[in-house]
Task: structure prediction
Amino acid sequence: MFCPFCRHAESRVVDSRATEDGYSIRRRRQCSSCGRRFTTIETASLSVVKRSGVAEPFSRSKIISGVSKACQGRPVSEDDLAMLAQEVEETIRAEGRAEVDAHQVGLAILRPLRRLDQVAYLRFASVYQGFETLEDFEDAIKALRENPETTLPPHQRTLSAT
Result:
């Protein structure tokens, strides 16, 4: 790490702390040459490997963008989408790999989206899983009906019971 002030290559760590999200480490450093202090942030990289074989950095904003299309017109807030993206990232990072297949990301989206909003889940699943017939939709709806308690948020469970 080069000092941002004098470009000297050596510095020592004065303080290290985990960031609020727990995925990064904030380090205060002091330059060995000029004595000035600066901060660095270290994160573990996570890459998504596309079907084409190209790897790109994991992006919560891409998760939000893709899922928001399925949630269009549904009672899903930006905060809900941010929480979903965080949950997806946590699920993927828990696997402990630096690279994950794009298909795995899609599968990680399905479970929390199913809990968040059933209609958005069906929309996303129909594209992601390539529904081709009405039977595909019927099978997905049947699966949702067989497990309604695990798919609905608590505020929707009480509404559906009335």
About this structure: The CA atoms of residues 3 and 40 lie 10 Å apart. Residues 151-162 have pLDDT under 50 and may be disordered.
